[in-house]
Write a structure and sequence with these properties.
Number of strands of chain A: 0
CATH architecture of the largest domain in chain B: 3-Layer(aba) Sandwich
Number of domains of chain B: 2
Distance between the termini of chain B: 39 Å
Largest sheet of chain B: 6 strands, mixed
Largest sheet of chain A: none
Bound molecules: adenosine-5'-diphosphate, magnesium ion
Main location (chain A): membrane
Largest interface: A-B, 45 and 60 residues
Radius of gyration of chain A: 23 Å
Pfam families (chain A): ABC2_membrane
Shape of chain B: elongated
Subcellular location (chain A): Cell membrane
Oligomer: heterodimer
Structural class of chain B: alpha/beta
Number of helices of chain A: 12
GO molecular function (chain A): ABC-type transporter activity
Strand order of the largest sheet of chain B: 6-7-8-3-9-10
Membrane topology (chain A): Multi-pass membrane protein
Shape of chain A: elongated
Strand content of chain A: under 5%
Helix content of chain B: 25-40%
Chain lengths: 279, 324
Amino acid sequence: MSVAAPTAQKHETSKILSALASTERPEPPGPISTSFTFGWRALLKIKHVPEQLVDVTIFPIMFTLLFTFLFGGALAGSTVEYVQFLLPGILVQGVIMITMYTGTTLRTDIEKGVFDRFRSLPIWRPSALVGMLLGDAARFTISALVTITLGLILGWRPQGGPVGVALGVLLLLVFAFSLGWVWTFLSLVLRTSNAIMGVSMLVITPLTFGSNIFVDPSTMPGWLQAFVEVNPVSHLVTAVRALMGGTDPGNGIVLTLVSSAALVAVFGSLTMWRYRDPR
Amino acid sequence: MTDLAIETHGLVKVFGSTRAVDGVDLAIPRGGVHGFLGPNGAGKTTTIRMLATLSTPDGGTARVLGRDVVREADEVRRRVSLTGQFASVDEDLTGRENLRLIGRLFGYTGPGATRRANELLEAFGLAEAGDRQVKKYSGGMRRRIDIAASIVVTPELLFLDEPTTGLDPRSRNEVWDIIRAMVGSGTTVLLTTQYLDEADQLADRISVIDSGKVIAEGTSSELKASVGSGSLHVRVMDPADRAAAQQILVRELGVEVREGVDPAALDASVDSSTVVTRALGSLDAAGITLAQFALGQPTLDEVFLALTGHTAEPEQSETEEDAA
Ligand SMILES: Nc1ncnc2c1ncn2[C@@H]1O[C@H](COP(=O)(O)OP(=O)(O)O)[C@@H](O)[C@H]1O
Ligand SMILES: [Mg+2]
């Protein structure tokens, strides 16, 4: 950097003055525009810190291989048969596990102080968080693509075809975006990344394992069946499975959209309430 | 409409049992730099965060540029900008990306935001570093990109929270120059600092804050005058003359004259410079030659000591020399 010689300094000062003289006040952007701008920020962060993509690739590979070969022989007789059942579910499981990182990422951002600047801008308040969740959708998509590719290699043959698979992923992304508000809220209430991780695991474990991801609930005891029945993840898995398998999804799609809307309404509001004064 | 940039009445913020801000009344006019001087933990950051709408007051009212910070928070956000005490840009992004991000959020189009980013990088001497991640910047460069991010759209009022804490003297001078340039362009700056010389150098008026309360207010000279004395320091050419010189000074100044550690030095607190002129004349008449004499105003440090009973220097003073 240039040494601050008196003349160089004068020069700089005049440039600062002319930069300040700008009276340009562009038209304030709308909520969608600012949300996408924050989504762009999330993508830039992935570009600069590609290590963020390790979890979205390792998790799904690990889960898919582990559960296919762990349960495949016992539950369905063969792994190829089991993977037909498991893959849509494990896709959901992988993405839901990864949504947890949203909370810790936000906590880090808030601690570093950059959210102070975002909160001091005259923009639609939720857009920084919406944008962050939109950026996360890119990571979730990568996770889904990895799982799907691995599934195809293992012999998964979705009868719904590419369109069915794409629709299934889309529905999953909608749900993941909505679930993200639970983690944003937690990260504004809990003060450390460890606490956020702990509570997130506590929520995620029953949501994913207490569902129809791994086995048909008809083999479960009554009390567990009751839980699986009301678990929104079960409805999501049912819908994704049907879309990808080319069968009738029944009310799975509607139920998933309803629970997504409910998550945004409740945890989105709670998040924004905490976001006003987040320390 | 009011002409005040900042007006608060009984502003309060409580954290648990800590009254971080405990009834602050401010009336700060538009234009120039207003200094907010106080030691670590005095409540400067907490006050600024309330004024910048980042946290809600627990009591009292605050109007910034005539708008209430709670009820008209959006209006306030449109007009002010904050450079926080800690990083207020995204360290993972490059300097240029940070400025483009803020530009887009203010409504610049893609090319418009890029143009503005380039203009600011150039003005702040960061053109070469523009494509490096901010986490790789030096302390001084970070402060500059922080300040640049605050003026992507020129604010009417800029909050600068300890902009030079932890900087080396050269970077500190650079930040001072930037602040002077901003004031020259008509922006009002509220500057917090723990450094007495910084407030002295930059601020038109100073509020001294301690334990969440404003304990004094005025120009730097007014604050010094309120402590009531300057200091006279003389060194005689021949140490043998010191006793005689001391007698003369006591007689002429009518105050206590202390012997310095240096065997030729004498120190005294004085109220006006006219008696000093007379005293120096008497020394001359008595044939005592002086090697050196200096008449100084009290430092703000002495002011702080007089006002609060303790000094304002941070507990563990940074390895920093006075940059002035
Ligand atoms: N988020 C917080 N939670 C609890 N105490 C806080 C918080 N922020 C500040 N404080 C306390 O409030 C007081 C004032 O802090 P601060 O405004 O940061 O002082 P300054 O900026 O003058 O150094 C300190 O005692 C500090 O410990
Ligand atoms: Mg502070």
